[in-house]
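Supplementary Methods, section 5.1.

A reviewer requested that the exact input to the structure prediction be made available. We therefore reproduce it here, unchanged from the version used in the analyses.
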Amino acid sequence: MAVQRTNPLPNGLYWIDLFSPTSSAPNTKDGAAVFNNWAAANRGKVQVQRTETFPEPGLGGPIRTWVLFKVVGPPGMFPFGLGFPTITTDPNEQSFYSELPSIPDFGDWLHGMTSGIEGLALVYVLYELSKRR
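The structure derived from this sequence is encoded token-by-token as follows.
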């Protein structure tokens, strides 16, 4: 996918991933706040179409916010310290990660496994292995 390196951004549709600090990633620049300030300063010229936030505290990383936005007039200089926005023409564009299945909780997975004969066999095998230690 092509990114836009021209500044200020020309009219068009773009998306960008932004990251915000968490307790486990405290030195991360607050990209969501920087972007929101830029968009507010360019009200009427920048239209946020959609945002998706993906908190990642379990992974130990920053909070990720994906933003689809449209530039309809010459805005002020884009804060490229956030990265280059990706050019798109699809107003239904979605974040790559919004299409991935969620990872099931281990307890839910184990409960699902133990509800059938295969699960009972697995529990038996694990029990037998634990007695050998």
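The first strand starts at residue 12 and ends at 20. These observations are discussed further in the main text.
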